[in-house]
Amino acid sequence: MAGIYIHIPFCKKACFYCDFHFSVSLALQDQLVAAIVQEIENRKSFVQGEVVESIYFGGGTPSVLRIDQVKTILQAVHQNFKVVDHAEITFECNPDDLNLPFLRELYACGINRLSIGIQSFNDDHLKWMNRSHTNNQSEQCIADASRVGFKDITIDLIYGIPQMGIDAWRKTVEKALELPVNHLSAYSLTMEENTPYHKLVAQKKYQKPNDDLASEHYAILEECTQAAGWEHYEVSNFCKVGNYSRHNTSYWQNKVYLGIGPSAHSFDKKARYWNVSNNKQYLEKTKASEDTFEKE
After folding, report:
1. Which end of the chain has fewer CB atoms within 10 angstroms, the N or the C?
2. What is the pLDDT of residues 104-148, one digit of tens each?
3. DSSP element (H, E) containing 93
4. Among 138, 133, 9, which residue's Cα sits nearest to residue 61?
5. What counts of helices (H) and strands (E) characterise the chain?
6. SS3 of residue 95 by DSSP
């Protein structure tokens, strides 16, 4: 069994703490989608004949794509790889991109798992992180996704935010557990070099993360999820019993996975590879049929 990860390197807005590869300019979006399709065709022998059990649209923000682009990429995967029936197909998205028509189209084209970047249910914290959505949008999109028929919904939360107290974090976790979701990924705020957050801390305009506070937040996260009967199956991942992310779990099981798109990583059980982390270089290399892989 193998997995395919597709990196969509675009965001409408830059979160100030993020050091992932992305661009806030969508000018090259159509060209990148075409290059991704080309790379899928070029890599069809990578999984060494294994069947694909999971497809993961990550980023960046895959929900900036048009539905026709999502369909084009999925069609290319199915045409070039053997995909199992009822494969897990995950789509990362932001609340402000999700409305009922778009959710219905995603569901209809085969997406069966959503990973929604909530990060916080507090509007002040969202503004502090330079997120583009509000708490109301978060709650609405989760309700809409459930209404459309999505059974597998995961949400991302960030803990360790300096100004977020213990009680505020506890309320955040309790609220998440009351929603129609079956998976939670929680990540500690970190300060990475070459991010606006790093610069703002250096300028003494923002507080740096507090490790002791983050540890307290994590303990509350474990306490609340355990009390709700959820499984803590990986450092940052929690779920209702048995509702693991099949794709993420495959990384821990050393299964073959193919990364498509700029900066995406791959593993063939012998070595690890990664694509160039530059959209224009990726386009040029793909167009010229040059290998975009670098090897460990």
Report:
1. C
2. 999 999 999 999 999 999 999 999 999 999 999 999 999 999 999
3. strand 83-93
4. 9
5. 10, 12
6. helix
